[in-house]
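User: Hey, my collaborator sent me this sequence without any context and asked if I could get a structure. I don't really work with proteins. Can you help?
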Amino acid sequence: QLRVVESGGGAVQTGESLRLSCVASGSRWPYSMAWFRQAPGKEREGVAASRSAAGEGYVADSVKGRFTISRDNAKSTIYLEMNNLKPEDTAVYYCAAASKWWLYLRASDYEYWGQGTQVTVSS
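Assistant: No problem. I've predicted the 3D structure and written it out in C-alpha cell form, which is a compact way to encode the shape of the chain:
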C-alpha cells in the first residue's frame, strides 16, 4: 500500500505563487506521480505528471509555462511550483501515485490518491 499526503495549499492573489508538496509513504515505491485538480462544478483535470525516476515531467497545456513539476526520490516527494496564479486555478489539488513509470494524466492509471489541498486565487 501507498499513502500520499499533499501540503502547501492556501489563498493567494492573482499573479502570486505557491508550491505544493506531496509525500508518498508505505510499502510500495511510488513510480509515476501526478497532480490533478477539481474546481467546484467541474470535472477533475490532470495538471502535471512526474513520469520517471529521472524526473521527466509532463505539464498540461492549460498550465504550461506557469506550473512546473519536480521530484525528489530520496524523499519520495513531488512538488508543483505554481507561478502567475489566476482565479481559474482555484481548485482542490490532488496528488496521485501509481505502480508504473511513464504515465501521463489519465486518472484511472493512478491507484493511490491523497485527500487534496485547497488552492484559492482571488482577483
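In plain terms: The chain has a mean pLDDT of 96. You can pass these C-alpha cells on to your collaborator as they are.
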